[in-house]
Amino acid sequence: MNYSIMPHNANFIPPVQKPTPNFLKEVGEQGIRDLLTRLYSCLDKSPIRPIFPAKDTQEMMEAAQISADFFIQICGGPQYFNQNRGMPQMRGRHAPFAITAEARLHWLTCFEEALKPLEKEISEESLQSFWNYINVFSIMMINTQG
Fold it and tell me: Is the pTM of this model over 0.70?
């Protein structure tokens, strides 16, 4: 598995390609929910915790499930996010929060940690497809210099 991180270039946002639907087939909806719980548990203890509006760990876990709805949908599953929150428009939703290139690296580091348990459970191709998606997606969320 190649967890390399694409360098950020403020003048270029690479095209994003959704993960293969096989990722969802192999992991399942509950697997994605567990993945996002692991991610948000890591973020809750990370240096970028202050950019999250959640007041406490319980609210972080609630945010994890909202995020899971998004990732289930982006991986070809039911449109839970659209049904519960409206169209994703993730750049706009993240605009109020100062997301720097450094914050992106912390987010990706937590995501890598959250993905590691899946390495033995799903195909490398599916896992790589998901990593490639979040790698580019994370570049799109950067909205602040510094």
Answer: yes
